[in-house]
Known about the structure:
Number of helices: 22
Shape: globular
Radius of gyration: 35 Å
CATH class of the largest domain: Alpha Beta
CATH topology of the largest domain: Phosphorylase Kinase, domain 1
Number of domains: 4
Structural class: alpha+beta
Largest sheet: 5 strands, antiparallel
Amino acid sequence: xxxxxxxxIAYTFIRYRxxxxxxxxxxxxxxxxxxxxxxxxxxxxxxxxxxxxxxLESLGPIFVKFGQxxxxxxxxxxxxxxxxxxxxxxxxPPFAKEDFLTLVEAGLGAPVDEIFQYFDREPLASAxxxxxxxxxxHSGEEVVIKIIRPGxxxxxxxxxxxxxxxxxxxxxxxxxxxxxxxxxxxEDYRTTIFDELDLQREAANASQLRRNFLNSPLLYVxxxxxxxxxxxxxxxxxxSGIPVTxxxxxxxxxxxxxxxxERGVEIFFTQVFEHxxxxxxxxxxxxxxxxxxxxxxxxxxxxxxxxxSLTRADQYYLARxxxxxxxxxxxxxxxxxxxxxxxxxxxxxxxxxxxxxxxCEPIFxxxxxxxxxxxxxxxxxxxxxxFNMPVQPQLVLxxxxxxxxxxxxxxLYPELNLWQTAHPFLEEWLRRRFSPASLWRELKRHAPExxxxxxxxxQLAYKGLANLQQLEPLRQSLEQTQAVLAENxxxxxxxxxxxxxxxxxxxxxxxxxxxxxxxxxxxxxxxxLSLASLSLVIVALAAWLSR
Length: 547
């Protein structure tokens, strides 16, 4: 089975001439020789990104998912290829109805007719990892049932092993491959897709997001039916809304498109900075618009398999970076990168400042409404990576989500000025973060732990002092050892120096003696200290110095 799959992948690789995406100059001659005949196969007029997209689509849902993941990594994948990969759609035929029924009944431990008043045998949607059917509970609530595809774990494990082998080859034989970190990308993919297989995890994410926006006019999250939810079965409230990309339907009900676009941006910043828990897969297929109030449109979000969060430090530095960038305070951007630990402490701040200015100045020459916030962040992170900024997965996920939201907002309302919406929010968030009320909340939040630990403080202090006293003899011993080692090193240096002088003296004596022998003793000058005597003195001096 694995061999057959490998042959299929190799055939697809050749058919779509994916060898042209590999820099061959760093490959071993054996691989270059193996790939050489492929030049006889025409590439056609398709772009690199289009050929890669078609190849991934032909290899099935797991590779489609991998392509979707690559499309979220503009920090390492060229922009034209990212643009093409974002068009990847799951075109997966549904699996057998009988299998769906069997899986639901096995997961919930009862026949479908006992659990549901009505169950639609035809799928509502079929994706690469899961399939969805509509149903009605006996209580009358309309729901959807989501089931993981049967046998998908085995297929994912097999395909990710093959992807890892390809990633190792690319990283081993290509300098560009090492720069693109393919092994890390495959590892991220494996973690992400296996997380998506746990529907109970997705349900927990949805429940948290629903609680965060409960009674909010901005976003509605469907209710999870926990009594009918398991690891491989998810039952949730069925929603009725307009797909966010159906501009015709939205305009037909007189939706305020400007308000809709601005609310999308507000939802993003609320999730990131207020809740610190954001829906990280907000592509158009997962977003709908409520029909209830077109003048004050409300979003509806589904599919919470991927979520993200930031540390408090990352929240703070990200907000300040954004504000500093749009104020064109590049010095502060550079300093914040060092303070946050995103780049090494020994980074030359002036050099980083100059690099950031070089990237950002051409962007900020445009009107603010034409500036892509997401692309500014992308450019900033790419520049910082030249200064050994390690990959920050949480920032990459956030950046991808921002690009999705921004692209969606501009699609809904092309005149959207993201900065006009974001700037007041960030200013207000920073002000509230350092307000007395916020400080008081933090004190109350941590007070129980401090009160619990306070009685132990005297004992801990006593133990710490006792440990310091025990360490004192060890410190003195270490200092003595260091002093002995330093003295030995000093003697060694002195010995080497005397040895060098002795060698020079012996060489000089040898030269003088040779001259004396060659010229004959009778030609030596009349002097109390002849050359021969001088040679003997030098030899004696050398012997004394080399002791």
